[in-house]
């Protein structure tokens, strides 16, 4: 277990304490500020809470796409949600946190937004509705570890101008995946018709524990072929990546064309298709 990732998660779990809605209801409108104080105090983050008619809906993470992180580059992520209350939304009350785990108290990785609690994050849409926007910058060297790949959740909060509020511990689930790479090399080039073509490749993915790329072992990968005169690829065969992520198979040369490998992806790793390699058949 990488200590820095665990420490980040614990920090997030504390900072999440917007849940300090153990504060008197009369102070609920000051939730974000109370949360910041609770974060410094390391207060435990709670589950769903509801007071009044404030509601959160339409939560969107990263435009509806999985978040994919490599080994070093910061990954920008935007979270938006709709907040409603019959008295209007306090524009400084919208806040969210991303985390991995069964619930917030038991999270083992997470990330807080670039905005501080109490910042203006919600834009008024109507007398009762606002759109809240939070931005994140995921650092794979600090925020992520291999065990944290897969399904993540969004913890979110908003409050009305009348001190109503809502806390959603799992407002939305989304995928946090390890960036993948795939290569293809077909040889010899050129080759005589009827001869054997050997197609090799490598399926690798980001290792967040070592900050390097490593072979993705035991995965089904499909070899595809497109004739020079065709516009679409067809599946040739499916093979399994080796203990080091390498790929190797053979086919019979029939006509000029392009070969490529295609990986369908898993719950922790996105799909990827290699650049094609052209073979001149003589």
Number of domains: 2
Main sheet specs: 6 strands, mixed
CATH superfamily of the largest domain: Immunoglobulins
Give the CATH level 1 class of the largest domain.
Mainly Beta
Q: Can you give the mean pLDDT? A: 88
Strand proportion: over 45%
- Given helix and strand content, the structural type is mainly beta
One letter per element, helices H and strands E, the order comes to HHEEEEEEEEEEEEEEEEEEE
- What overall form do the CA principal axes indicate? elongated
Q: Number of DSSP strands?
A: 19
CATH fold field value of the largest domain:
Immunoglobulin-like
Instruction: Give me the Rg, rounded.
Output: 25 Å
Count, helices: 2
First-to-last CA distance: 54 Å
Q: Which CATH architecture of the largest domain would you pick?
A: Sandwich
Uncertain residue ranges: 1-33, 35-44
Please estimate the helix content.
Answer: under 10%
Characterise this structure.
The structure is a single chain. A hairpin with an 8-residue loop joins strand 5 (95-100) and strand 6. The protein has 282 residues and is mainly beta. Strands 1, 3, 5, 6, 9 and 10 form a 6-stranded mixed sheet that branches. Strands 14, 15, 17, 18 and 19 form a 5-stranded antiparallel sheet that branches. It is built from 2 helices and 19 strands. Helices cover 9% and strands 45% of the residues. The chain is elongated and about 80 Å long. The chain folds into 2 domains: 3-177, Sandwich (Immunoglobulin-like); 180-279, Immunoglobulin-like (Sandwich), CATH 2.60.40.
């Amino acid at each position: 277990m990488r200590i820095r990732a665990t420490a980040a998660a614990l920090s997030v779990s504390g900072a999440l304490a917007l849940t300090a809605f153990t504060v008197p209801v009369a102070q609920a409108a000051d939730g974000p500020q109370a949360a910041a104080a609770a974060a410094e105090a390391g207060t435990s983050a709670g589950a769903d809470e509801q007071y009044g008619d404030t509601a959160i809906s339409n939560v969107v993470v990263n435009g509806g796409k999985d978040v994919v992180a490599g080994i070093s580059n910061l990954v920008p992520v935007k979270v938006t949600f709709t907040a409603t209350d019959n008295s209007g939304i306090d524009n400084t009350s919208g806040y969210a946190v991303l985390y991995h785990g069964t619930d917030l108290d038991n999270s083992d990785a997470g990330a807080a937004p670039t905005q501080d609690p109490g910042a203006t994050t919600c834009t008024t849409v109507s007398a009762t509705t606002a759109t809240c926007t939070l931005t994140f910058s995921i650092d794979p060297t600090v925020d992520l570890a291999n065990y944290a790949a897969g399904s993540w959740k969004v913890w979110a909060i908003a409050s009305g101008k009348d001190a109503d509020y809502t806390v959603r511990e799992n407002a939305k689930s989304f995928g946090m995946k390890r960036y993948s790479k795939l290569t293809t090399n077909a040889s010899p080039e050129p080759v005589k018709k009827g001869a054997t073509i050997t197609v090799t490749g490598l399926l690798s993915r980001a290792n967040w524990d070592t900050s390097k790329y490593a072979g993705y072992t035991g995965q089904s990968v499909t070899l595809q072929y497109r004739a020079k005169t065709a516009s679409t690829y067809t599946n040739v065969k499916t093979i399994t990546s080796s203990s080091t992520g390498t790929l190797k198979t053979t086919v019979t040369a029939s006509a000029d064309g392009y070969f490529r490998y295609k990986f369908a992806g898993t719950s922790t790793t996105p799909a990827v298709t290699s650049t094609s390699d052209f073979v001149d058949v003589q």
